[in-house]
Design goal:
It comes from Tenggerimyces flavus. The protein has 362 residues and is an alpha/beta fold. 46% of the residues lie in helices and 15% in strands.
Length: 362
C-alpha cells in the first residue's frame, strides 16, 4: 500500500485547503482522494463519495469543492467540526469490495483524527461498518453498530425546514400547503422529501434518470406527477424547484428557464459557476443556499460522535428553518444574494471561534 501526496501542498495553497491526500492500493483497486479544507472549528467531517469519475482531475475538482462546502456547512449549522470530504474513483456496483473499503479505512486512520468519514453518494452505512474495522474515525454506521443509520432522513427533514423558511419569506407563512414543488432526483433524500411535502399539503412533481427510483416513489406516493427530464421540470409551472441529485445542476440555461419562485434542494454544490447566484437574484428567484438547508445529514452523523440520539439530532436539524431565515435577513440587510450572505455567516463563525484555537491550553 502506498500513498501519493505529491500534489497536496500545491492544491492546498491554490484552493485554501489545509491538506489533500491521494490514496492508492493497487491490489484492492483503491484510488481515493481525501481533502481537508479546514480544521479551525474541529476535526474535518464529511462523507466518502464513490463515483466513476472520468478523470482524476474531475475527482479532484469535486472533492475540493465538496470539502469546502462541508466546512461552511458545519460552521453554519453551529457544529464544532471542520470540513472535509473524500472520493473513491470507480463504479461502486462493480469495484466496491471489502478489501477496498478496509484499505480506504487504513488511509483515513493514518490521518490521526484530522478527518472523520461518513456516507455519501455510492456509499452506505454497511460500507462504513467495513471501513470501521480498520479505522476509529467513522460515522454514519448502521444502527446495529451504534450508528445513526441512513443520514438522508434528516437531510430531507432539513431541506423541508429550508423550504418552510422560503415559504415564509415569499408568501408570509411557513408552509408549502397549496404550493407545487418540483424535485429533481428522488433517490435517498428526494424520496423522503416527497413525504414531508405531501404531509404539509403540497403537490409534488418529480424526475429522475433512474426508472427504479421513479417506480419506488410512485409506489409509495401514487399522487406524485412525473416529468421526463430535469430541464422539463425546471420549465414547468412550479412554485419551488428542489435539486436533489448531483451538483452543478443550476447552470445558465436552467436558471433562465426556471418558473419557480424559489430554489431549495438537497444536492451539494448546486451552482454551476460563480455568478449563478446573481442570475437567480436578478430573476427574482429566492435561492436557499445548498449547504445551509442540506446540513441535516451532517448534523445526524455528527451526533454519533457523542452517542447518537435521534430526537436530539432532529431538534438540531429543525433549527435549519431559523438559520435559513437568518441568511435571508442578512442578504436583505447587506444587499447581497443569499449565497453570499451564507458564506459570510459561515466565515465569521470560523474566524470568531477558530481563533480560540490559538489560545494555548496547558
Amino acid at each position: 500500500m502506498t500513498e501519493s501526496a505529491t500534489a497536496s501542498a500545491v492544491f492546498g495553497r491554490s484552493s485554501g485547503h489545509e491538506q489533500v491526500v491521494f490514496c492508492s492500493d493497487e491490489p484492492s483497486g483503491l484510488r481515493a482522494i481525501i481533502a481537508i479544507y479546514s480544521t479551525a472549528l474541529g476535526p474535518a467531517l464529511g462523507g466518502t463519495r464513490f463515483y466513476p469519475y472520468a478523470t482524476e482531475d474531475a475527482a479532484l475538482t469535486d472533492v475540493l469543492n465538496l470539502s469546502k462546502a462541508m466546512a461552511y456547512k458545519g460552521a453554519l449549522a453551529g457544529l464544532d467540526l471542520g470540513g472535509g470530504k473524500a472520493v473513491i474513483i470507480g463504479d461502486p456496483s462493480r469495484d466496491k469490495s471489502e478489501g477496498l473499503l478496509r484499505a480506504y479505512g487504513r488511509f483515513v486512520q493514518s490521518l490521526g483524527g484530522r478527518y472523520i468519514t461518513a456516507c455519501d453518494v455510492g456509499t452506505y452505512s454497511p460500507d462504513m461498518d467495513l471501513v470501521a474495522r480498520e479505522c476509529t474515525y467513522v460515522t454514519g454506521r448502521t444502527v446495529e453498530h451504534g450508528g445513526a443509520g441512513d443520514s438522508s432522513i434528516l437531510t430531507a427533514f432539513g431541506v423541508f425546514q429550508g423550504m418552510r423558511a422560503c415559504a415564509e419569506r415569499l408568501w408570509g407563512s411557513p408552509t408549502l400547503h397549496g404550493r407545487r414543488v418540483g424535485i429533481a432526483g428522488v433517490g435517498k433524500v428526494g424520496r423522503h422529501l416527497v413525504g414531508h411535502l405531501l404531509d404539509d399539503g403540497a403537490s409534488v412533481v418529480v424526475t429522475d434518470v433512474s426508472e427504479q427510483a421513479i417506480a419506488a416513489v410512485r409506489l409509495e406516493y401514487p399522487s406524485v406527477d412525473v416529468v421526463d427530464s430535469a430541464s422539463a421540470l425546471a420549465a414547468s409551472d412550479i412554485d419551488v424547484y428542489a435539486p436533489c441529485a448531483l451538483g452543478s445542476s443550476l447552470d445558465d440555461a436552467t436558471v433562465l428557464s426556471l418558473r419557480a419562485r424559489a430554489v431549495c434542494g438537497g444536492a451539494n454544490n448546486q451552482l454551476a459557476h460563480a455568478g449563478i447566484e446573481k442570475m437567480l437574484e436578478d430573476r427574482g428567484i429566492l435561492y436557499a443556499p445548498d449547504y445551509c438547508v442540506n446540513a441535516g445529514g451532517l448534523i445526524q452523523v455528527a451526533d454519533e460522535i457523542e452517542g447518537f440520539d435521534f430526537a436530539r439530532a432532529k431538534a438540531r436539524a429543525a433549527k435549519i428553518y431559523e438559520t435559513t431565515g437568518k441568511v435571508f435577513s442578512l442578504a436583505e440587510e447587506e444587499g447581497v444574494p443569499p449565497a453570499v450572505a451564507a458564506d459570510r455567516l459561515a466565515e465569521r463563525r470560523i474566524a470568531e471561534i477558530g481563533r480560540l484555537r490559538s489560545l494555548w491550553l496547558g
